Amino acid sequence: MAVEDEGLRVFQSVKIKIPFYGEDFYCEIPRSFRHLSFYIFDRDVFRRDSIIGKVAIQKEDLQKYHNRDTWFQLQHVDADSEVQGKVHLELRLSEVITDTGVVCHKLATRIVECQGLPIVNGQCDPYATVTLAGPFRSEAKKTKVKRKTNNPQFDEVFYFEVTRPCSYSKKSHFDFEEEDVDKLEIRVDLWNASNLKFGDEFLGELRIPLKVLRQSSSYEAWYFLQPRDNGSKSLKPGDLGSLRLNVVYTEDHVFSSDYYSPLRDLLLKSADVEPVSASAAHILGEVCREKQEAAVPLVRLLLHYGRVVPFISAIAGAEVKRTQDPNTIFRGNSLASKCIDETMKLAGMHYLHVTLKPAIEEICQSHKPCEIDPVKLKDGENLENNMENLRQYVDRVFHAITESGVSCPTVMCDIFFSLREAAAKRFQGDPDVRYTAVSSFIFLRFFAPAILSPNLFQLTPHHTDPQTSRTLTLISKTVQTLGSLSKSKSFLDLISSSGRRDPKSVEQPILLKELMIKRAQGRKRFGMKNFKKRWFRLTNHEFTYHKSKGDQPLYSIPIENILAVEKLEEESFKMKNMFQVIQPERALYIQANNCVEAKDWIDILTKVSQCNQKRLTVYHPSAYLSGHWLCCRAPSDSAPGCSPCTGGLPANIQLDIDGDRETERIYSLFNSYMSKLEKMQEACGSKSVYDGPEQEEYSTFVIDDPQETYKTLKQVIAGVGALEQEHAQYKRDKFKKTKYGSQEHPIGDKSFQNYIRQQSETSTHSI
Fold first, then answer.
1. pLDDT-based confidence at 710, cuts 50/70/90?
2. Nearest to 168 by CA among 159, 179, 177, 160
3. If you average pLDDT over residues 158-169, what whole number do you get?
4. What are phi and psi of 610, to 5 degrees?
5. Percentage of the chain lying above the pLDDT 70 cut
6. 3-state secondary structure of 590
7. Alpha-carbon separation of residue 149 from 123, 135, 210, 645 (angstroms)
8. Is pLDDT at 235 greater than 60 in this prediction?
9. Where is the PH domain (predicted)?
10. pLDDT class for 79, splitting at 50, 70, 90?
11. How far apart are the C-alpha atoms of 180 and 166, rounded to whole Å?
12. Disulfide: which of 341, 406, 554, 679 matches 603 by Cβ 3.0-4.6 Å?
């Protein structure tokens, strides 16, 4: 969630790892949150949930536990501790003269409004009680109930007399000249009006001592609601157990785009730097403690600007060159591997759902036993039956995967093409390495994890039961094995194909599809005898047809010349199952043997040509015959199409990525690892002048070209330094303008109090 603040956008996100459950959660969170809470439930045999306890971490304490495993004591959960929202309050003290001529003071308390109150049982009908309390009195008043809102506008004023004349004849009364105002307080309690017999729900309170009126007779501020003083303090904190968490909390303050231009441009040209190890993006991977830490913002930034494929191609190529054994290719947790994983996660989620979700749902619903370990067989289960069940499931899943090639996102195909090319060049004597380079990602790191834990990929709404989980584990392991065998080669060929012509390529054109079908060429009306059977052949370079299999091609269409592939309406030639391959000069009309075959050809031809720069957006669904187009009656054979192209395939999913925010994240990483950047600079100098053995303290860095790397490091450090100055200036300016007790920073905001204390140590400005 972003909050605009004078040109600066603030984003907060949290990643939670719960080791006991082995699950990670990532979520964006509102800027105004006060606690990050985790609730533990118990589910009974009737699938009813009852709450056990909670862990609530204050916002200001998140950095204390950042990115490390911590045990937290569970707390009891009760209405008095579940508090959120804020209140706008005004106080005014004035003198009045009574009918008897005595001067006294009246306190006017105005409840203006509340914001962010909790929704209780699907609704919120709030009201407030206002109490003037002191050592000898307690006087309460109540607002009207505001129905169905958690942002009520009360705007009600209550008056209290705070000075009294001397008393009295009755001995039972206390004698005092006047009340000590400093000992009085206003207490505001928020309630949710309930029709239930259990009474109204407590929403929170605030207490304001009247000493705030010492300097002025009027006072106005926003307050965070607080839990009751008693809360659950009387309960022992350790009687509910503990929860182990690993919380990663980030807060990004994002400037407008022009602030990031120098650093962003440096990162975007990383793919063009020779060698790539001297690029800014590669340097980020070198200085970060974990490669994943660098890969996440890098991939998002490069995807946003369309530069992820050339960069991954460059770093993957460099990694392959350093690999000595083809059996270990892309096996480590390198920057290249992490970037490819992150790209598949972002760009391939829709593809994953289209491919696997129907099969996973069928497995979860049919619930057939598949245990093949004789030791783990349950009573009544038969090993042979279980093996047959497992075989059917594996066939279902593996078939869904290997038939999904046309749905694979283009960005993934282009990356796989680069991996295939790099592996084939490096290990020319190993014909299988071009397949293992791709299968190690698509099967081992994409499909297999999703099958193993479908709930983590939103393929199932909940955790699977133990039996289904075991079945999915067995399927996942089997699919990994099958993915490396020859059964998947045609699938791997398709997803690693590219229409890009590379004169340096060592690969022969990859055969994607071939079949005998009928065809017609030209725009005159043909009779049945004019449709001849031809052998059609598609590679990742060209689409050709031949008189028969093995003959020289009669006609060839380069992939880059395919402008669209669409169905042809039956009225054109009074024939079914026809489609057209549209080229710059004319269309090739083709009739398939059946509708399934026609769809297969349309899908695969569209797949290999969908990134062509000159692809059409409109086309003619019918043929041009007898001097006009049958569809729109346009007389010119060069008239623009009259119907929008369907594409035949779902478009690449558009990702919601903020390039400036990702650059800010990368700046923050560089800034936090500044000491490593400086040490890398020293390493560049050392490698340039030192010809002996590499110094151990610098051996952790990959530096292929010390001079180029040093030049890039100098630019990175300068760009990071400039952004650091901008952030520091923004904080100073904000500190001057910020008011504690404002709507943005209500009283009770402990994180802001910490901020004030930190700024006060370095600033002479007061708030």
1. very high
2. 177
3. 64
4. -70, -15
5. 84
6. strand
7. 7, 36, 30, 48
8. no
9. 509-610
10. low
11. 13
12. 406
According to the 3-state scheme, what is the secondary structure of 715-761?
HHHHHHHHHHHHHHHHHHHHHHHCCCCCCCCCECCHHHHHHHHHHHH
Q: Are 111 and 154 in contact (CB under 8 A)?
A: yes
In sequence order, what are the residues at sequence separation of 6 or more whose Cβ sits closer than 8 angstroms to the Cβ of residue 577?
591, 592, 593, 594, 595, 597, 598
Radius of gyration of the chain from its Cα atoms, rounded to whole angstroms = 35
d(CA 410, CA 654) in angstroms, rounded, equals 12
pLDDT at 228: 80
Q: Is 89 helix (H, G, I), strand (E, B) or coil?
A: strand
The helices-and-strands tally (H runs, E runs) of the chain is 17, 26
Kindly report the number of other CB atoms within 10 A of residue 402's CB atom. 19
Cβ atoms 185, 119 nearer than 8 A:
no
Whether 200 contacts 192, CB under 8 Å: yes
Residue type, 575: M
For residue 762, pLDDT over 70 is answered with no
Strand partners, 520: 589
Peptide bond preceding 449 in cis form (omega within 30 of 0)? no
For the ranges 19-33, 309-323, 406-420, 671-685, the lowest mean pLDDT is seen at 19-33
Q: How confident is the model at residue 136 (pLDDT cuts 50, 70, 90)?
A: confident
Query: C-alpha distances in angstroms, 409 versus 351, 418, 562, 564?
Result: 7, 15, 19, 18
**711 class by beta-carbon count within 10 Å (0-12 exposed, 13-18 middle, 19+ buried):** middle
Give me the half-sphere count of Cα atoms (radius 13 Å) on the Cβ side of residue 477.
7
**Phi–psi pair at 171, nearest 5 degrees:** -65, -20
Q: Is 457 helix (H, G, I), strand (E, B) or coil?
A: helix
Average pLDDT over residues 120-139: 87
Q: Please state, in angstroms and rounded to a whole number, the distance separating the CA atoms of residues 153 and 688.
A: 70
DSSP for 101-164, written as a single string: S-EEEEEEEEEEEEE-PPPBTTB--EEEEEEEEETTEEEEEEPPPPPS-SS-EEEEEEEEE---
What are the angstrom distances between the C-alpha of 543 and each of 62, 270, 376? Answer: 59, 35, 53
Query: Can you say how many angstroms the Cα of residue 629 is from the centroid of all Cα atoms in its chain?
Result: 47
Query: In this structure, which amino acid lies at residue 119?
Result: I
Residue range 347-358: mean pLDDT, rounded: 93
Question: pLDDT band for position 355 (50/70/90)?
Answer: very high
Structure tokens at 571: 């009225």
Higher pLDDT, 606 or 449: 449
Which tokens hold the place of 479? 């699919």
pTM: 0.79
Separation between Cα atoms, residue 282 and residue 271, nearest integer Å = 9
Q: How far is CA 3 from CA 9, 12, 113, 690, 734, in A?
A: 5, 10, 22, 51, 15
Q: How distant, in Å, are the alpha carbons of 161, 318, 703 from that of 694? A: 83, 21, 11
Q: What is the pLDDT of residues 29-66, one digit of tens each?
A: 766 677 788 888 887 767 677 888 888 888 878 888 88
Distance CA 60, CA 740 (A): 16
Please give the structure tokens belonging to residue 144. 């009207």
Q: Phi and psi dihedrals of 70, rounded to 5?
A: -140, 140
Percent helix, strand, coil in the chain, to 5, is 40, 25, 35
Using the predicted structure, report yes or no on whether residue 650 has a pLDDT greater than 60: no
Q: Which residue has the tokens 């340039």?
A: 688
Cβ neighbors of 78 (< 8 A, separation 6 or more) are 231, 232
748: left (phi over 0), alpha (psi -120 to 50) or beta: left
- Written in H, E and C, the secondary structure of 612-626 is CCCCCCEECCCCEEC
Read off the pLDDT of residues 572-598 as tens digits, 9 standing for 90 and up.
888 899 999 999 888 899 999 899 999
